[in-house]
UniProtKB/TrEMBL annotation:
Carboxymuconolactone decarboxylase-like domain ranges (all copies): 35-117
Record's protein name: Carboxymuconolactone decarboxylase
Pfam family, one: CMD
Entry-linked SUPFAM superfamilies: AhpD-like (SSF69118)
Gene3D superfamilies: AhpD-like (1.20.1290.10)
InterPro entries, alphabetized: 4CMD/NDH-1_regulator, AhpD-like, CMD-like, Decarb_PcaC
Superkingdom of this protein's organism: Bacteria
Organism name: Actibacterium atlanticum
MF terms (GO), sorted A to Z: peroxiredoxin activity
Length: 125
């Protein structure tokens, strides 16, 4: 694998945790292997690995973008990542308030519900 892939896996593990990455890798198949490499190198090895802004700020941006675009399936995963990125519950609330104003209350409302549910699960673990 490339240096970008290696850096991506390192960053992915730092943000999402080893357990999540191991589960995702176990589900990888020949069908989606090239796509997974693209994501690892592009998202994790380039964008998330950049020193331009902190992982905390990237968490807030990612959650806001996911909510604004209605990509709700990944919100719980990125809420869980806040335990490693340093984005607080207040940070997440602030990000979703921006979503409410600039992208719509229903999307922000659903994202907040997912965040509350995920935080509750995290507290039980």
């Amino acid at each position: 694998m490339s240096d970008k892939y290696d850096k991506g896996m390192q960053t992915r593990r730092a943000v999402l945790g080893d357990a999540h990455v191991e589960r995702a890798e176990a589900c990888k198949s020949d069908f989606d292997s090239a796509f997974q490499t693209l994501i690892t190198e592009g998202a994790w090895g380039t964008v998330w690995a950049s020193d331009g802004i902190s992982h905390r700020e990237r968490s807030m941006l990612t959650l806001a973008l996911l909510a604004a675009l209605g990509n709700f399936e990944e919100i719980p995963m990125h809420i869980r990542a806040t335990a490693r990125t340093g984005a607080s519950k207040q940070d997440v609330l602030e990000a979703f308030q921006h979503v409410a104003i600039y992208a719509g209350v229903p999307r922000a409302n659903h994202a907040l519900k997912l965040a509350k549910d995920t935080y509750a699960e995290m507290e039980q673990e």
